[in-house]
Structures are given as C-alpha cells and as structure tokens.
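Sanity check

After download, print the first record. It should look like this:
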Amino acid sequence: IIIFDSKNPFNFYDIFNRIDKISTQKVFGILTKPNDYDNFPIIIGVAGSAGWGQHHYKYLNNYVENGFATLSLHSFKSRNVSSTVGSQVAVTIPMIIYDAFMALKELKNHNQIDVNNSAITGWSLGGGVSLFSAWKPIQELISPDLKFSAHLPFYPPCMIMPDDLKFNNVPIHILAGELDDWVPAKACTELVDASNKKGNNLNITIYENAHHSFDREMDVQISSNAYSFTDCRMKIDNNGVVRLLNGFPLSTPSLQKIGLFFCAEKGAHWGGDKVAREKSKLFALEFMQKNLGK
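Expected structure tokens:
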C-alpha cells in the first residue's frame, strides 16, 4: 500500500486559481509488481463511479503478468465514499487527477518503478481522469516535472470540451461503446475531431453494439439513478470553469446539480458485450506494450 498527500479540488477552477487554499487529503493506492528486483514501467488504474470491480482488476492482473507494475488508485475509499453514481460531487475528476499526479510523484521514490515510463488508464469517471490528465494546462499546473507517457481511457465523459484544446503529445486512445447512453461515444468523436484540428493526436475506437461498461461480465441493465449525457454538452473555459453551452456555470456542487437537472437525463444502460470485452482486453495490453517499451 502506497500512502501519499493529495488535495480535494472540486473543479478545475480550484486547481487553476486557489489550490493553496484547498484542503489536503491522505490517499492510498495498491502497488503490484511482477517481482521484487527488476525495474518496471508503471500503469496507474482509476475505477469508475461505482468503484473498483472485478473486470478492472482483470486488466491490472494481465498487465502484471506481462511485466508491468500497476497501482490501483483508491480515491473513493480514501475519502470514505463508495459510489458517486447519480451525484458526481463527492469525488470529482479534478480530485482524482490531482491524486494520480501525486501518486506518480510518490512512486518516484520507489527504485523499482520507472515513473518516466508511465501510463494511466481508467473507466467511466476514471476514463475522464485518464483523458483529462493529458490536458496540457492542468498537467503543467499540477505536475510540471512529471507527466504520463500514455493514456488509455475507457468510455470517458467526453461531453466536456476545453476552450484551450492543448493535449500532451503522447499516445491518447479512447475506447467507447457505440450504444453508450451514459457518456456518449459521439461526444468522444467530437472531442477527438476538434482536438486533432488543433494539432493534437487523439485516437478512438468505437465498439459496435456495445453499451457503457462493455467490458463487465454482467448483462446490460438500466441504472435509473445514473445521469445520461446523450444530448448534454459542456465546455471548460480558460479559467477552469465548466459551463453548459448556454453559459450556466457548474462551479459549485449545488450549481452542478441544477445544471445537470436541465442538461442531462436520469436513467442510462450499462453492461457487458462479449465481443467488445475480448477486443478491448487485447487492445489494452498491446497499447501498453507498444507505448511503454515492453
């Protein structure tokens, strides 16, 4: 178990403008290495809104079996939260991005871990962490000396478009489900296209007939409490404020609840798809082997 100091920024505005005033937070992660003597690239994993599941650990176990060290980040448990489905205020993407960079900084002290050969992967909420930790303005503020070498987000919330579309020039590949009505693949295509027109190099794979959490073992079901962002789009301004397209700011927990009431709907599907599950498992390992020099 690795324990380190982080902070609790509710949003990107907190990081841009007042991080020194934000409360500190002890966070832990679980480090797993193939052995106790070699030097390894590191893959940090970040779970979704429902917390860590069996399918998440299958990826991490597969990485370890193939010569990578992994760190499962436990941002929820560290804050005594079990799930953020339907609220998304107790633990936020900016909080976990901060955690991830502080974890990377802590891992620099471990002589078996090569922090300059690091990747971050995550699912849903964790996919957002994996995606936006590559957003250059936020990475340079939080961690100017260390950044991730590769980013592999699974079904991330792409409906938040930065005004400043600068992403780090490292491999970034989104895996999304065609039928995802929780966080739509269409929004990810929009983000990839807009980013690449600005000179970035984001990539995306969309699995046909696959829903949100396509790599789970469970059958597709509806979560009545979950937000559906199918027709909801937002932007992040250069001050770190997330707004609806009409300008309404989501800058506090209460304003976020009001804004999402008007922008998002409640009720979204999630569940596994055998074809997408197998393809994504293979893709994930090949992506890490290609981009982390194994």
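If your output differs, re-run the checksum step. Summary of this record's structure: The CA atoms of residues 164 and 238 lie 6 Å apart.
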